[in-house]
Amino acid sequence: MNRRRLVNTFNAGRGVAKPSHCRASLQHVQQTTATASILPLTSRQWLSIPANRNSIPQIRPPQSAQRRYASGEPEDSVVKQTALYNLHVKNGGKMVPFGGYSMPVQYSDLSITESHHWTRDKASLFDVGHMVQHRLSGPAASLLLERITPTSITSLETYHSTLSCLLHPISGGIVDDTVITRLGPETFYVVTNAACRSKDLAYLGEQIASSPYREGIDHQVLDNWGLIALQGPLSVEVLQDALLANRAADLEGREEIDLHSLYFGQCKHYIVNDPSPSASSAEKGQAAPILISRGGYTGEDGFEISIPPDFTQTFTDFLLASAGPQKLRLAGLGARDSLRLEAGMCLYGHDMNDDITPVEAGLSWIIGKERRAGGGFHGDEVILRELKPVKEGGAGPAKRRIGLVVEGAPAREGAKIVDGEGEEVGIVTSGCPSPTLQKNIAMGYVKSGMHKAGTEVGVIVRGKRRKGVIAKMPFVKSKYWKQAAGTAPG
Q1: What are the tens digits of pLDDT across the range 217-262?
Q2: Measured between alpha carbons, how far is 109 from 225 in angstroms, rounded to an integer?
Q3: Which of 216, 274, 433, 469 is a good FRET partner for 423, with 20 to 30 A between their CA atoms?
Q4: What is the pLDDT of residues 451-490, one digit of tens each?
Q5: pLDDT of residue 17
């Protein structure tokens, strides 16, 4: 079977339709039984693609990827390793426990500050394989996501992504932040935080089990899949050159890859060849699908790449080798934290938690226009009241997430924010020296009314009051590759 038939086989299992036509009626959903369906662009094992891609056997997901969760799992006391653990150790990674995994803070070739600057100037590769990758599908997948998030799921186009939040019923507090990608009419790729794994799986299991359309929802966790983030101004050059050298192809079989037409918030599947130099002659040329999404957690242009288990190590090695250390270096959690703070991005468990709503967190933009009018999501009464200003009869948020520039010593998480009279009006949730700005920056929450940019406050650092000024975020201008004229960097 040729590549065209491979693509047709995949697309037949995935389905192709416009989002506006894909919302199932509740009546239809209640009459539908959930079935195991083809995972979109699964691993080499799932597709069993031979070396020459000319034969397509029966598609079967591996047992690990079919795992269902009716309730949350207990926390595992054993620190896990991502598929790239050996790569980290080989390159002098300083490993620490993070989100239940052993993850690198930095590497021996660069300090955290140097790695931060390298990402802003060139390109860095981050292992984010500790994140939890999910697949939600079935005729009621959209209905579930519209119930548990405030996002306009029905208007999300195929191969487009959006930031969203899982919400608690009644309170509207944030269970976790998440990125949701539509891969088909009722097929979604969802990424959540590693530290919230047990809580999120329990939450999703409960929400599915308690829904009237639970039989129309299939939830699978893509255990052992790799996830890497390629970030920085050279990332598009690095990735495109690697894909061309690999002779990767899109789902139409085209090898003429142009990542400049893939914009921020969009994604695309590519079929890549096994680049492992140790592969036997029988294995050489074996192929696997990867999902490339344009975006990231640094404010720079970049990509996040979801990779099947068998290809994670070899594809990452190939990417590093094809770019060379003059363009691409490994980066760890230390640089990732200072980069995301400069970009004004939240870290769950610090800048967001179960008691904070999207409006308080400055994420009102994730609430869809039609959701504001019709509600229908968890915590809608609370959230919609907060969206409406007090002068218009609403409640407004009690507190607001803000940026801060602090003089003197850097303000860290837990530092109190006070007004001119010394009264506590807020708290710092993240803070560090900014390598780019050469200033101490922070993120936190203050009472509504104290949140306007330019407002002077006091920040208690090591028992001493320091001058702080409320600042707009992001602290460093984002460089996302956007489709609108004038928004994509040259």
Answers
A1: 999 999 999 999 999 999 999 999 999 999 999 988 888 899 999 9
A2: 27
A3: 433
A4: 999 999 999 999 999 999 999 999 999 999 998 644 444 3
A5: 36
- Give dist(CA 285, CA 247) in Å, integer: 10
Half-sphere exposure of 185 (CA within 13 A, CB side): 16
Distance, CA of 42 to CA of 32 (rounded, Å): 25
Residue 446 token pair: 């203050």
Across 353-411, where does the E strand assignment appear? 399-406
Pair of tokens at residue 440? 């101490």
Q: Which residues have CB under 8 Å from 146's CB, separation 6+? A: 153, 154, 371, 376, 377
Tell me how far apart the alpha carbons of residues 259 and 463 are, in angstroms, rounded to a whole number: 51
Q: Give the integer Cα–Cα distance in Å for 384 and 373.
A: 9
Report d(CA 189, CA 381) in Å as an integer.
Answer: 28
Sign, CA dihedral 436-440-443-448, equals negative
Burial 324-357 (b: 16+ CB within 10 A, else e): eeebbbbbbbbbbbbbbbbbbbbbbeebbeeebb
What is the rounded distance in angstroms from the CA atom of residue 108 to the CA atom of residue 93? 6
In angstroms, how far is the first alpha carbon of the chain from the final one? 42
Contact in structure between 395 and 434 (CB atoms under 8 Å): no
Mean of the per-residue pLDDT values for the chain? 86
Q: How many other CB atoms sit within 10 Å of the CB of residue 139?
A: 24
Q: What kind and span of H or E run contains 318?
A: helix 312-323
Token pair 């300083």: residue: 94
Radius of gyration of the chain (CA): 23
CA distances from 368 to 156, 358, 373, 380 (A): 10, 12, 9, 12
Residue 324 region by backbone torsions, left for phi larger than 0, else alpha for psi between -120 and 50, else beta: left
Do the Cβ atoms of 401 and 445 come closer than 8 Å?
yes
Place 46 in a pLDDT band, splitting at 50, 70 and 90: very low
Query: Residue 229 has what pLDDT?
Result: 98
Beta bridge partners of 125: 230, 330
Residues recorded for the chain: 490
Query: Amino acid identity, residue 429?
Result: T
